[in-house]
Write a structure and sequence with these properties.
Blueprint lengths: L5 H4 L6 H16 L2 H4 L4 H14 L9 H14 L1 H20 L2 H12 L5 E4 L15 E4 L3 E12 L6 E7 L9 E7 L5 E6 L8 E12 L3 E2 L5 H37 L1 E2 L2 E2 L4 H29 L5 H26 L9 H8 L10 H11 L7
The structure holds flavin-adenine dinucleotide.
The site of flavin-adenine dinucleotide has 19 residues, from strand 1, strand 3 and helix 12.
Length: 379
């Protein structure tokens, strides 16, 4: 497998340890491809991948964002479920890592890092997706803690997670100001999987119900009323990694399209001799370069303690939208063969779609980017 562009990795955005990590990752994916190539039950595949990633130290909480992006790029190139397994564990660990108390970290982090336990991030509800401030799941205070009542929707790892990070309404203030994040073990009485959701690229995804679900006071992450801040802190950081995963999918499609163009005999020549095909391959190369540079910049800004949120949105928006175009163009180059069930192009065509929706839709990224524009430049 060759998931990376060595020319991009050689740029000063990256340190020698990132280049070394990219090489180890490539080897790891080659050595572990049987984990995802078996194409058995997606939930089992994910659990096996998380365990293997944990055993080999890929779930280390010390990783910087350039490393996280490289891991997602490589795993997405290798397989959608490999990336999904890694990414949800990493995403849902961030609230604990950044806002957990020492005792919460001590209790939960070691098993998550070893891949022995699985975590999920339950923010969305049916009527509160982009509009996070509309969250309705209630957490009412009791003498010993809180009681949770309501529903969560579209929870990645829902049903296979051992621990949920849940954002609920505690009412310290109106809208976004009245939310709190909780750590809720899956075994808590009253917490159920309401429905498992089948989507175009099969994966562990579920709606959850909380019926009089009691949690102690020390399950609050950060402080009461800070749930929205924690959710945005997680999403601002993680969006760039969605761009990195999109880049991995897009590179896989681009490589497949290039091989097909070079191999396919047509009109006494090969597909790659046709000017329109060459133009498509050239456009793909431009988009791959642009996406890789935007992801690298966003991660570099974050790792260097600079303002990064707008770059995270820019990277996610461009990399996911362009990956969709690259994969569509690759499928077109394959002709009818590109549509065959379980072929690389058919799988990628289904797998890329959700990246333009989760962790903030493309429209939400545009709103974030527009908000960040410096209006003084227009004066
Ligand atoms: C595979 C997958 C995994 C997911 N995993 C998780 C998870 O682990 N945890 C979790 O909490 N959630 C998860 N989600 C949910 C995801 O975050 C939401 O689907 C997403 O935030 C969009 O919300 P929505 O689906 O309710 O769409 P809506 O918010 O209803 O949006 C509908 C449409 O309106 C547009 N729109 C909304 N607001 C604006 C605006 N201000 N300006 C312009 N257009 C706007 C949107 O872009 C979209 O096109 C997952 C979703 C998917 C598909």
């Amino acid at each position: 497998m060759r998931a990376f562009d060595d020319g991009i990795l050689a740029l000063p955005f990256y340190e020698p340890e990132h280049r070394e990590l990219a090489q180890r990752l490539t080897n790891w994916c080659d050595e572990h491809s049987e984990l995802w190539n078996a194409r058995t039950d997606p939930e089992k595949t994910e659990l096996n991948v998380i365990r293997a990633l944990g055993e080999d130290g890929w779930l280390s909480p010390e990783a910087d964002f350039r490393s996280l992006c490289l891991v997602r790029e490589a795993l997405a190139y290798a397989d959608d479920l490999a990336d999904y397994a890694f990414s949800i564990q990493a995403l849902a660990s961030i609230p604990l890592l950044r806002h957990g108390s020492p005792s919460q970290k001590e209790r939960h982090l070691p098993a998550l890092t070893r891949g022995e336990r699985v975590v999920a991030f339950a923010l969305s509800e049916e009527q509160a997706g982009s509009d996070v401030a509309a969250i309705a799941l209630r957490a009412d205070q009791t003498p010993g803690g809180y009681v949770l009542n309501g529903r969560k929707a579209w929870v990645a790892n829902g049903g296979i997670a051992d621990l949920y990070c849940v954002v609920a309404r505690t009412g310290e203030g109106p809208g976004a100001l009245g939310l709190t994040a909780f750590l809720v073990p899956a075994t808590t009485p009253g917490l159920h999987v309401r429905e498992k959701i089948a989507v175009i690229a099969p994966r562990a995804l579920a709606h959850l119900a909380f019926d009089n679900c009691e949690v102690p006071s020390d399950s609050v992450l950060g402080r009461p009323g800070h749930g929205f801040v924690i959710a945005m802190d997680v999403l601002d950081r993680f969006r760039m990694t969605v761009g990195a995963a999109a880049l991995g999918f897009a590179r896989r499609a681009a490589d497949a399209a290039l091989s097909r163009s070079a191999d396919r005999p047509i009109y006494d020549g090969r597909l790659i001799d046709l000017p329109t095909i060459r133009a498509t391959l050239a456009d793909t190369e431009v988009k791959l370069n642009a996406a890789a540079l935007l992801v690298a910049r966003a991660a570099w800004e974050l790792d260097n303690g600079r303002r990064f949120a707008r770059h995270s949105s820019i990277a996610k928006l461009y990399a996911t939208e362009s990956a969709q175009e690259i994969i569509d163009a690759a499928l077109q180059i394959f002709g009818a063969a590109g549509l065959v069930s379980d072929s690389v192009t058919e799988r990628l065509y289904r797998q890329i779609r959700s990246l333009r929706i989760y962790e903030g839709t493309s429209e939400i990224q545009r709103a974030v980017i527009a908000q960040s524009l410096d209006l003084r430049r227009a004066e």
